[in-house]
């Protein structure tokens, strides 16, 4: 008898649960929202170097509920000083998510720029995002002198530009001897920095050779201020 009662209750409960699930699905509200745009510009943009900007498009805040997939996008790069457009283009988009790249061979001339990207979905909804960025002078900074092995061009140690702070250059684990060094730009002597202080100081154009003490150092140089430091490696 108990088995019959349990079977009877199960027959009543299962349809109710199925109806509830169907109601939940039926109550889902489909959204008509504009696309979203993510822009990724390299931290360091230099004149003469190829520039690649990443773009990610999505059809809305909730892709699962969106009823209008992506359709198209366009972009424009404007020189913020002259307001002249220096690059533009369009993309055909599809699906709920799409990725594209803006590639500018040879990069952009030195200056300040604004990138504006617009995306549209098949429902006619559109959105726009903008990012400002600078194109910087390409520059190499090296350390040269008897303090790192010699004054010949082949002795020069090239430093690495900091992408987060493009004015800063670094070189780690530099073996330094008792002697003298200078910092210079673009492998020549037209622009060079020197000072009388060690292990840190502020170099000036055509300043004196920097005296060095033997050891292993992490070296930092700021091309804007001329500040430098030799931090001992422990």
What does this 3D model show about the protein?
Helix content is 11%, strand content 47%. The protein contains one helix and 18 strands. The chain has one helix spanning 2-26, and strands at residues 36-40, 51-58, 70-79, 85-92, 97-104, 111-121, 126-135, 141-144, 157-158, 160-161, 168-176, 179-185, 192-194, 200-202, 204-205, 210-212, 215-222, 227-232. Strands 8, 9, 12, 13, 15 and 16 form a six-stranded antiparallel β-sheet that branches. It is elongated, with a radius of gyration of 30 Å.
**Unreliable stretches covering 5 or more consecutive residues:** 1-29
Look at the helices and sheets and give the structural class.
mainly beta
Helix/strand order, N-terminal first: HEEEEEEEEEEEEEEEEEE
Which value, in Å, is the CA radius of gyration?
30 Å
Main pleated sheet: 6 strands, antiparallel
Percent of residues in β-strands: over 45%
Distance between the termini: 84 Å
Task: Offer a quick outline of the entry.
This protein has 234 residues and is mostly beta strands.
Ordered list of secondary-structure elements with their pairings:
Layout: H1 2-26, E1 36-40, E2 51-58, E3 70-79, E4 85-92, E5 97-104, E6 111-121, E7 126-135, E8 141-144, E9 157-158, E10 160-161, E11 168-176, E12 179-185, E13 192-194, E14 200-202, E15 204-205, E16 210-212, E17 215-222, E18 227-232
Antiparallel strand pairs: 1-2, 2-5, 3-4, 3-6, 6-7, 8-9, 8-12, 10-11, 11-17, 12-13, 12-16, 13-15, 14-18, 17-18
């Amino acid at each position: 008898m108990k088995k019959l009662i349990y079977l009877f209750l199960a027959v009543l409960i299962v349809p109710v649960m199925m109806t509830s699930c169907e109601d939940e699905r039926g109550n889902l509200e489909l959204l008509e929202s504009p696309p979203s745009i993510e822009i990724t510009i390299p931290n360091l943009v230099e004149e003469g170097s190829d520039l690649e900007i990443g773009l990610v498009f999505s059809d809305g805040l909730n892709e699962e509920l969106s009823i209008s997939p992506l359709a198209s996008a366009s972009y424009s790069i404007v020189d913020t000083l002259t307001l002249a457009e220096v690059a533009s283009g369009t993309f055909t988009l599809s699906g709920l998510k799409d990725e594209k790249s803006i590639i500018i061979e040879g990069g952009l001339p030195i200056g300040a720029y604004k990138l504006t990207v617009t995306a549209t979905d098949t429902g006619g909804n559109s959105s726009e995002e903008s990012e400002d960025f600078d194109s910087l002078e390409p520059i190499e900074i090296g350390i040269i002198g008897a303090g790192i092995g010699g004054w010949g061009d082949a002795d020069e140690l090239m430093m690495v530009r900091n992408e987060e702070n493009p004015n800063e250059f670094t070189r780690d684990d530099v073996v330094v001897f008792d002697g003298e060094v200078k910092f210079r730009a673009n492998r020549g002597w037209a622009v060079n920095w020197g000072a009388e202080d060690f292990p840190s100081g502020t170099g000036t154009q055509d300043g004196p050779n920097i005296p060095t003490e033997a050891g292993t150092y992490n070296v930092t140089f700021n091309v804007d201020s001329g500040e430098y430091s030799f931090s001992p490696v422990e």
